[in-house]
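WP5 quarterly update. Target: M56 family metallopeptidase. Source organism: Streptomyces noboritoensis. Length: 309 aa.
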Amino acid sequence: MIFAVWIPLLVPFLAVPAARRLAEALPPRPAAWLLAVASTGLALCSAAALGLLALAGALRLPFVAALGHLVTPLDEVPGAIALPAACAATALLALCGLALIRTARRQLGEVRAARRSLAPATGELAVVRDPSPYAYALPGRPDRIVVTTGMLRALEPAEREALFAHERAHLRGRHHLFLAAAELAAHLHPSLRSLRAPLAYALERCADEAAARAVGDRRLAARAIGRAALAGRAGAPAVPRAALAVAAGPVPRRVAALLDRRPAGAPLRSRGARLVAAALLACLCASAVSAVEAAADLHGGIETAQGED
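Structure tokens (predicted):
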């Protein structure tokens, strides 16, 4: 366990650059899934490693050992590092847990406050009388597309349809859950914070492509996104972090991607891309296998300390 337990804590520093590089070579939807799964998987493995370190150290305390019916000392982790590592792991887990709870409560509170500010649901579209031009997809029951009168005035009728299709794609794809997973994973390992921005971009690109398909005109979708972003610079109120706004992310890059007639993303045909994919898969497997191996070693050490054969 002493070696395996550290691998899930170190692997994310290697896996994150590979995930970002690979996401750039994929179409938007697979890229979003890749980044969400990678961040969630790496976060869970690192949290499991911290939990194992905390448990291994705690079992060296007499009252905890008595609760576990240990008749001999647990020797899975050397005594010189067992308690310091357990204290550090426990502190980190506590801080991560508090941050997770605080973030979840804040985001839920923002969504509830935004929903309370809207008129009772009479349909998917919620028009807010506000000269500030902004629009976003608000998840909930039911899902709502929030748009202000200022944004409606800033766009032509055809562009409004592209805007609604964009926000509708966010709601149907449950993109807020992807963002929530990345947000929570970022609290469990510092290196995973750098996956939030590329994930948000991939989700916006997914909605951009859906809008282009819905209106049947990529140039119209690009123009709608560009004009909505320019109008939104006039100043918009704080949008809930769980909501997705049409003007989010690097808009010029998104517009350029829509105007590019080539398919979104590129298949993994290059040798470099395949090597990056293999490296990322190896990192994910190494993290998961090491966490399982460390857990198995600790379980075996506990049985030995309990005097079981």
